[in-house]
Design a protein that fits this description.
Length: 108
């Protein structure tokens, strides 16, 4: 969950920084290290933004990661909005607590 929150924050701040500097949002991110790399890019899925965060090692090239991202983007791009729309008035606190409850059990 921490990686997801960090990816969302990097995506949001990168978009805004790009808008302020050049008028266009920065898209995607790649950070390469000696042994490992991280790739992040957004795409549309069912009318919403979806982030892919991929960690890879030296045995995988950035080109291969981009190729798999393109396949992922094409696959999720075909997903249509669900006929049965989710309730917009969902309880945020209940949603946030549901994941830890599923992992560790509810607090008593």
């Amino acid at each position: 969950m921490t990686a997801c929150a960090l990816a969302a924050a990097i995506n949001a701040s990168g978009k805004e920084l790009g808008r302020q500097l050049s008028g266009r949002p920065f898209v995607g991110m790649h950070q390469g290290g000696r042994k490992q790399g991280v790739f992040m890019r957004a795409c549309a899925a069912a009318g919403k933004e979806c982030l892919l965060l991929a960690a890879f090692d030296r045995d995988t090239t950035l080109g291969l990661v981009r190729l798999y991202f393109a396949e992922f983007r094409d696959a999720v791009g075909c997903v249509q909005k669900s006929v049965k729309a989710e309730s917009q008035d969902s309880d945020l606190e209940a949603d946030l607590n549901s994941s830890p409850d599923a992992l560790f059990g509810p607090l008593n």
